[in-house]
Amino acid sequence: MRMPLTWLAEYTDLPAGATGADVAAGLVSVGLEEEDLHGGDITGPLVVGRVLEFVEEPQKNGKTIRWCTVDVGENGQMVSEGKPQEIVCGADNFAVGDLVVVVLPGATLPGGFHIAARKTYGHVSNGMICAEDELGIGHDHSGIIVLERLLGAEKAAEVRPGDDAIALLGLAEETVETNVTPDRGYCFSVRGLAREYWHSQGSPAGGFRDPAAVDVPAANEAGHPVRVEDDEPLEGVIGCDRFVARVVRGIDPTRPSPSWMQKRLTQMGMRPISLAVDVTNYVMLAVGQPLHAYDLAKLDGPIVVRRARAGESLTTLDDVERTLSTEDLLITDSGERPLAIAGVMGGASSEVDDATTDVLVEAAHFDPTTVARSSRRHRLVTEASKRFERGVDPEVTPAAAQLAVDLLVEFGGGTVDPGVTDLDATTDRQAYLLDVTEPGRIIGIDYPRERVLQILRDLGCTVDEQGTGTDAGHVLVTPPSWRPDLVDAPDYAEEVARIDGYNNIPSVIPTPSQGRGLTHAQRTRRLVADALAGAGYTEVLSYPFVAEELSDQLGLPADDDRRQAVRVANPLSEERPLLRTTVLASLVDVLRRNVARGHKDVALYEVGLVFRPGGPLAKAPVPGVGQRPDDATLEDLYAAVPPQPRRAALVATGQAEPAGWWGPGRAADWSDMVAAVQGVAAALAVPVVVTADADHAPWHPGRCARISLPDGTLVGHAGELHPKALAALELPARTVAAEFDVDVLIAASEEPVQATAFSTFPPALTDVALLVASDVAAADVERALRAGAGEALESITLFDVYEGERVEAGHRSLAYRLTFRAADRTLTTDEVNAFRDAAVASAAEATGAVQR
Predict the structure, then answer these.
(1) Could you give the CA distance from residue 316 to residue 306 in angstroms, rounded to a whole number?
(2) Among 28, 307, 695, 807, which residue has the fewest nearby CB atoms (within 10 Å)?
(3) pTM score, two decimals?
(4) How many other CB atoms are there within 10 angstroms of residue 703's CB atom?
């Protein structure tokens, strides 16, 4: 939300010499977020220019540029002895004779962008013809600014080439932009921001001037007929609880919006369109109430507010035909023809145009949930929907309509109908019995009683110190209509702390009690993360939401329980409505994004929860908050939540070891994944067994390892992903991945590990090469060697695998290095040979191995 300082000064007092940075700091002090500062940062010649001629020149890259001659008045003396400027422009939304905004060499645009004459596309361009985003007055970069469209023909007729565009567009005035959080919907207006700035200055008496404090005539029977027929309200809440309609007749359609209004709309990042539309936008920005103007001549009967019917459609103002849902709230003509999606966007059939003389102004209050769902359903985020879904003040509705009517009469020459329609079904806010010491207890500061009460009154609350049921320590507090978020004691405590000043809250570091620390599970999770990071993997955090087609992309079998995912009722994105059943499902998306941005050698890991329902979930009860739920209710709550085991996944593609002067690099392969999981297990002192797994999607059938505990409990899988899965996921060939169950490792590592004394005697090394059938797993051979080698075996390493000449067909040679060490002596050669022979005999018996 933007706010020019000149507009702010109309509603509250600014200290002498206050800058945009000062105002932003004040807003930050009361909990708002500064987004940006606009205006005041353009220096040098920014002038009005008139396009005299241009030549379109196609380029080799397929783009067409315009080689323009532009009259910039006397400013041309600075670069070309008063001659018209020759400028290269890539836009095509202007014609010869149009007035445009030209920045000349020597100027500086927002962001420190210095302008100089430069050669481009074979010409020397003496400046630049500007678009909105280049001047910081909007986000449009689709075309340059044409002043006849921006200011209107009448205002543009007063402008001459060479005029100062900085003053014309108000670019010297500073505008503060804030990020409005969902609980502060009232700050989506200059009225709301001005009130917050007033609070930041100590809420001085008389320092806030409410623009909505206008006289409004009472409703009568002569107003335009309106009915609300919401027979099936969404979740029991009526979609529209207030609707104000006012009519202004005889507006001169040729009259433009006043220049000051156009300037303010431009400063706020909006484009002036016509008087009726500009007035509704201006009032919305001023007081936060979205308005809509209908061409009265295009209406055939009363306005009826109802839910959409199955099969209905509406062409909205953006010329898109939208299929409506039965949950959409509509504004209709006589209950039949849809005119608008309530709170989102109007329809094209009743919009005001250049011939409109009679206007019906709508100011209504719609249910935030209804508007939010319609906005997301149609992927249509508008200035109106952003305000309604955060909550609009229902008491400002008639005042907003009156402000719009007054402006239309003043600048459009119309007359207002005496009829006033105001259907008001709003309910009064409920008073809350507040213990005045509660904010102090929650925040940890002893706020005096009078300070608490004064802050509540400054916020607009009604404070009754003598109400029914109150005592010396309690007061009845009724929140203002624009603060639907104030419900209970913590809400009021937050407001007291915010207005009194967050800087007044001391920073106190709590002293931990003795005997407490990390649990075993917490320590284990840290060790898992440290081991993966130490192996060269980068930790990422991905959203746990996945697309429905992901199971097919991963190639999961139809009966795989990983296909049974929980669907989110109100997902952040309709494209990703499911909760992940595997961490790898969301991690591959992070990998794809990194690869798409040019990173070829990537190794990532994530530790997070997955959601494995295993079947239909029970419906969760909604217990009260007055007391702790009983055991049966807690069991029902847990039964309604899917099991959420903790898993870890890692992926890698590209080079695991880079090439350099030391030699060629090495690509990441399946063995890196197995080694990473084994490294995690070793860090936790948990023995694991690695075996081949012929069929476990999404891994390659011949390059997938099953990792388990010695008792057979599955830990996870590691290896190379299936080529079909890689193609569906748009990942590089030979991408490798692993996923394992952290909870299994946590449970397996709970038993204490018995440390053994480190032997100071030298190790004895011996190598053995065994000939085995090609289908015998190396892990089985290693297991047999360990079993026969005895307790003196310290380690065993497979260092060579050979198939080829001098090896019988269908067989391969496996070479192992065995390390023996005794705790109390140096082993003799005979002892080592005996250990080796016993190991070979064990391997021969178990796997048919023959020593070479």
Answers:
(1) 17
(2) 695
(3) 0.62
(4) 19
